[in-house]
Amino acid sequence: MLTLIEDAFERFLNDDDGQPVVMLNLLRFQEDGGRERYAQYLAVATPIVARFGAEIVYVGNGLPALSAEPGQAWDAVALVRYPNRRAFADMAMDADYRDKAAPMREAALAEAVLQPLRTASS
């Protein structure tokens, strides 16, 4: 389940500089069909995300980690670029996303990390 850290999310929005933000999604799938359910989630989520000016930039499967502590290898990663932080927040609170896509994502994942990124020069 995606659990937003409330204080971090509030700071994330308050510090919005209007610049694009990329969300790094580190994904660990449920063992029984999680990968397939995540593909279904992407099919539903992609047009919703696009309504907020965002785009899924990359989705890739993880290979065995070359350097990691136990438990730090991920099944897949996804990069989603949003025009700004507010667009991400608006998408996350959108009824279609919340009611249709988010439950699919939750059912697909055993664990996930959502890490906002910005260009190093920003």
UniProtKB/TrEMBL annotation:
Matches recorded under Pfam families: DUF1330
Domain DUF1330: 35-110
Entry-linked InterPro entries: Dimeric_a/b-barrel, DUF1330
SUPFAM superfamilies the UniProt entry points to: Dimeric alpha+beta barrel (SSF54909)
Gene3D superfamilies according to UniProt: 3.30.70.100
PANTHER family per the UniProt record, alphabetical: DUF1330 DOMAIN-CONTAINING PROTEIN, PTHR40257
Protein's recorded name: DUF1330 domain-containing protein
